[in-house]
Amino acid sequence: MGSGRVLGVDASKTTWAGVAERRALLAAAGITLADQLGTAGTKAKPDDILDAAAAAWTARCVATGEARCTPDPPEVFANEFPAAIWT
């Protein structure tokens, strides 16, 4: 989503600047988060909302065939499950 760009100095997803930077990246990728989240905003922390939105972006990329994995090909564990990070 960020094309490998390093986030700002104060970019922790628990800081105001980090939340704003991640919301901008999500919006540029077509995932817009509402300013008001209703009861969800009282139950989930902002970083949890960001994580869910990033997971939705990854799922969309996988569904449309745009996702890429690292490593490629995925590492296969002893239990024969492939392991990779999808972006």
Please render the helix and strand layout as text.
Elements: H1 16-28, H2 40-43, H3 46-64, E1 69-76, E2 82-86
Antiparallel strand pairs: 1-2
Helix pairs in contact: 1-3
Protein name: Putative RNase H-like nuclease
Pfam families: DUF429 (PF04250)
InterPro entries: DUF429
Overview of the structural elements:
This protein has 87 residues and is an alpha+beta fold. The chain has one domain. Helix content is 41%, strand content 15%. The chain has a two-stranded antiparallel ribbon with strand order 1-2. Helix 1 runs parallel beside helix 3 (46-64). The model has no long low-confidence stretch (mean pLDDT 87).
Which descriptors would you attach to this protein?
2 strands; alpha+beta; DUF429; two-stranded antiparallel sheet; globular; single chain; 87 residues
DSSP helix count?
A: 3
- How would you classify the helix and strand content by structural class? alpha+beta
Overall residue-averaged pLDDT value? 87
Order of helices and strands: HHHEE
Number of domains: 1
Oligomeric status: single chain
Physical arrangement of strands within the biggest beta sheet: 1-2
Count of strand segments: 2
Which spans of ≥5 residues are poorly predicted at pLDDT below 50? none
Based on Cα principal axes, name the global outline: globular
Helix coverage percent: 40-55%
Strand content: 5-15%
Biggest beta sheet summary: 2 strands, antiparallel
The termini sit apart by 7 Å
Cα gyration radius (Å): 15 Å
Pfam families: DUF429 (PF04250)
Organism: Actinomadura luteofluorescens
Protein name: Putative RNase H-like nuclease
InterPro entries: DUF429
